[in-house]
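Q: Hi! First time doing this. I have a protein sequence and I read that you can turn it into a structure. Is that right? Here it is:
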Amino acid sequence: MNFTQEQITSIFDELANKENGYQSLLKLSLEAIMRAEREQFNSTHNDSSNGYRLSSVFAHKSKMELVIPPSRHNKRLPNRH
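A: Yes, that's right. Below is the predicted 3D structure, encoded as structure tokens:
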């Protein structure tokens, strides 16, 4: 899907303004970043993903469950920069 910057901003605004919207938007964004990072890591290290694992984190005084995409062979997250 290809969205314009204006469409993306509108979608983000709509999500953020719902009840618990900030937390939902943060969760969706973090999980999307981790999936993209995992895809890049897999392609550069000839690895593959093997499902997901849950991880609890705290953000803005509340608990959030994130879905983490580990790799099949390396079984760790990519190095952080």
